């Protein structure tokens, strides 16, 4: 592995990306992570540049990348120690260990931000050029001391992440949605679109198995809400999860999916695969962007249409954001009960309005009344989730669509979060309240033998 004198001045080149391992943290890292303190001093030092150049000039990269991180570590430590002696570099053993860790992060991870991926408390990682790395912990953004060497370093890491899932990002295609091997969502924007350097936004996938019960323990919803949502899943209700960016829509969708019967065939459709369903019979589909000639794109609408021919019991769409809304409503209305999707909206009523707009994008000739009747017939529940000012995600409303009255869709709130305005402080105070109304889907619950359980859960 070592001794072959091949020179690799830049290990993260796009040409090498196909040979690299997927950029993701191992579930239980056994190797020491590079501490964030002193990161800028180390990776931008002349000593780091010299040792890094010697390491990559002394390694057979193709052979090294076929091995594990721990197997390669010993060889890099030996080369680094020889370089320190030969070049008479004035560095401490601690700095030498940091340099070796940073080189390994470049080879097997995502560079300087690898420690953040290993930190379970971090939910979002935001790279704004080489000098700014923010992390979200417990709903709050904080600036970290981590730095990249330069903008080219950020770009190389971004290109490697994209290449790992068969996508590309460069000057001709400066934006891309990708994912890490663990399901974490990644968005990349390169210059000249990003004026202050390459931008990488990572929405981390939680290693913990988030369930509805755990969400109730965390204060995201009430135990009564959990019981009603479990019944809704068992009764195969069509559910839309509405909320803003980063409000926890996908997490809630994953939690709801735990209550899908294991004998059902589920087809998931996403731009970047994030859903982690536990059922044995799941078919996961992912969109494909167009190639450099502008051909070969596969959109969500294409996948929804194709999914209807795959004999699904349920279709789960990661996010509805365009003309595919028309096909989703068609699927919900044609026997694919229990289908779910997410949508960006601030209230359940706004979610309905957005659905109307997206259906009109697909078929502008449909009268608005017909669109509303389709929505009222297809959608049973809208779950409104919100990231509140204290950083806690809460299920603020469980809204049922109760049919049409004239040209208006009638809704009723089964549950709502009422915050206490008189107790204003850093933490949001409030209670989850039941409306005590009889749900329209109680008749459907009776068909599944769950009406009594449902009415007990609705009692205040």
Automatic annotation (TrEMBL):
Residue spans of biased composition, Pro residues class = 24-35
Q: Which InterPro entries match?
A: AAA+_ATPase, P-loop_NTPase, T2SS/T4SS_dom, T4SS_GSP_E_ATPase
Q: In this protein, which residues make up the domain named AAA+ ATPase?
A: 235-389
User: Source organism's superkingdom?
Assistant: Bacteria
Renumbered to this chain, region (Disordered) spans 1-42
Basic and acidic residues bias: start-end ranges: 7-16
Which family is it part of?
Answer: Belongs to the GSP E family.
The protein's matches in PANTHER family, at most eight in alphabetical order, are given as: TWITCHING MOTILITY PROTEIN PILT, TYPE IV PILUS RETRACTATION ATPASE PILT
Q: What is this protein called?
A: Secretion system protein E
């Amino acid at each position: 592995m070592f001794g072959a004198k091949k020179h690799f001045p830049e290990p993260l080149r796009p040409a090498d990306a196909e040979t690299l391992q997927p950029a993701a943290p191992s579930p239980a890292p056994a190797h020491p992570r590079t501490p964030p303190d002193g990161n800028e001093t180390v990776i931008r030092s002349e000593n780091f540049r010299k040792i890094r150049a010697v390491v990559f000039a002394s390694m057979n990269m193709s052979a090294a990348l076929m091995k594990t991180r721990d197997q390669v570590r010993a060889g890099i430590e030996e080369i680094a120690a020889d370089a320190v002696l030969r070049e008479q570099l004035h560095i401490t053993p601690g700095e030498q260990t940091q340099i070796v860790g940073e080189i390994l992060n470049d080879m097997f991870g995502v560079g300087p931000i690898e420690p953040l991926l290993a930190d379970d408390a971090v939910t979002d990682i935001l790279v704004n050029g080489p000098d700014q790395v923010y992390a979200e912990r417990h709903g709050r953004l904080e600036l970290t001391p981590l730095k990249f060497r330069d903008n080219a370093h950020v770009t190389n890491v971004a290109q490697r992440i994209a290449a790992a899932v068969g996508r590309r990002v460069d000057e001709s295609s400066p934006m891309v949605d990708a994912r890490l091997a663990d399901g974490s969502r990644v968005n990349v924007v390169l210059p000249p679109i990003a004026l202050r350097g390459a931008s990488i936004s990572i929405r981390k996938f939680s290693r913990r198995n988030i369930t509805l019960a755990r969400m109730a323990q965390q204060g995201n919803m009430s135990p009564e809400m959990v019981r009603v949502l479990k019944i809704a899943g068992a009764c195969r209700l069509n559910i839309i999860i509405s909320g803003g960016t980063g409000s926890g829509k996908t997490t809630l969708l994953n939690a709801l999916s735990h209550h899908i019967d294991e004998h059902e065939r589920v087809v998931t459709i996403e731009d970047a695969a994030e859903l982690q369903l536990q059922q044995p019979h799941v078919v996961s589909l992912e969109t494909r962007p167009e190639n450099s000639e502008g051909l070969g794109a596969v959109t969500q609408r294409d996948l929804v249409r194709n999914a209807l021919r795959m004999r699904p019991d349920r279709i789960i769409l990661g996010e509805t954001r365009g003309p595919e809304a028309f096909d989703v409503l068609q699927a919900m209305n044609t026997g694919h009960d229990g289908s779910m999707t997410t949508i960006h909206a601030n209230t359940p009523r706004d979610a309905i309005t957005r659905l109307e707009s997206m259906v009109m994008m697909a078929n502008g000739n449909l009268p608005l009344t017909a669109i509303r009747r389709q929505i009222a017939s297809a959608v049973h529940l809208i779950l409104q989730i919100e990231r509140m000012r204290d950083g806690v995600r809460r299920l603020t409303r469980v809204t049922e669509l109760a049919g049409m009255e004239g040209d208006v869709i009638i809704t009723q709130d089964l549950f709502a979060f009422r915050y206490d305005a008189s107790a204003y402080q850093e933490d949001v105070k409030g209670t989850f309240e039941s409306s005590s109304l009889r749900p329209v889907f109680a008749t459907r619950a009776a068909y599944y033998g769950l009406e009594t359980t449902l009415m007990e859960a609705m009692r205040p």
